[in-house]
Design a protein that fits this description.
single chain; mainly alpha; Complex1_LYR_dom
Length: 100
């Protein structure tokens, strides 16, 4: 049986940043916020795990999930959605509103 090699802290942080970056690329507010919340919660929940084999499995699963997230964020960018009331207004839009 081969010993599993746990990912380094740098690798995990890099993966986390990629999750956040790709989640932020969703055009739809609800999807974007959902994936941001889910990513943060998942990484926080697993932050105390020390077992190398379990960490290696979680890391590989997260890489697979990231691939799916990337594909879905690209698909999301192909569609436009109306802004929701809860979404922050862009600075440029604020300037236009203030002119009227």
């Amino acid at each position: 049986m081969t010993a599993a090699i746990a990912p380094t802290r740098r690798q995990v942080l890099s993966l986390y940043k990629q999750f956040i970056k790709n989640a932020n690329q969703f055009n739809n507010f609800n999807f974007r916020e959902y994936f941001l919340r889910k990513s943060r919660a998942s990484f926080k929940q697993n932050s105390t795990i020390q077992d190398a084999e379990k960490l290696s499995k979680l890391y590989q699963d997260a890489k697979n999930d990231l691939s799916a997230l990337k594909r879905q964020s690209v698909i999301s960018q192909m569609y436009t959605f109306d802004k929701l009331v809860v979404e922050p207004v862009d600075k440029e839009e604020r300037k236009d509103i203030n002119k009227h």
